[in-house]
């Protein structure tokens, strides 16, 4: 039976000699066999039934983790608290617009999926949410340093930090954000997670160096671009996804799936962003 649309698609064993049906033509003509025609009708009816089904809109991923992202930026501002007023102002400057929170959103979604898979919880754990926060802090610091390297005048439609306060203060601001992210990371108390997020920092530096160079050979240029894209963008997403899987006590296979998902998504996200004119 064809359960999807309750159609009779029973295969005639006498016609097929007990084997699975195929779309081959008869040996003596170009006319389909009776059994082939029956299968073709079944597939056609199934397709039409599928086309008649109402389309269900995909859920908004941000809404799925809205509770976890609600106070994300205020928590980051708390982490960046300092008695030095100007440093506090600079460190929070890019966070005031609150961005898209793409990286924290992915981390929280992966955390929830892993927790449901392992039976740990049906939502994001506090330690996993901290990973999402740290990911956004590392991303913010990388933007500050990128603008210094590129001598950019604008970021998110407003003057860049280096434009308003100078290159030296901008460098120190990026360093300060990274230092506070490292403190938050250490508080989680998981050595494997510390190693994963530390790898992100190494990749960011290597990615910046790779961006300063290029390859003459076309094939080498594309491989160079993908490697650079992984280090500058995808590594943060990939290792954040693996980190929340680790904190979910997921099996190593699940951790690897989480990592590969983040890696591929990160590369696709950057390639898509780069292609927008």
UniProtKB/TrEMBL annotation:
Classification via Pfam families: polyprenyl_synt
Family annotation (CDD domains): Trans_IPPS_HT
Domain of life: Eukaryota
Coiled-coil regions listed: none
Keywords: Isoprene biosynthesis, Magnesium, Metal-binding, Transferase
Cofactors (names): Mg(2+)
InterPro entries in the cross-refs: Isoprenoid_synthase_dom_sf (IPR008949), Polyprenyl_synt (IPR000092)
Family: Belongs to the FPP/GGPP synthase family.
PANTHER family (alphabetical): ALL TRANS-POLYPRENYL-DIPHOSPHATE SYNTHASE PDSS1 (PTHR12001:SF69), GERANYLGERANYL PYROPHOSPHATE SYNTHASE (PTHR12001)
Protein name: Decaprenyl-diphosphate synthase subunit 1-like isoform X2
Organism name: Priapulus caudatus
Lineage: Eukaryota, Metazoa, Ecdysozoa, Scalidophora, Priapulida
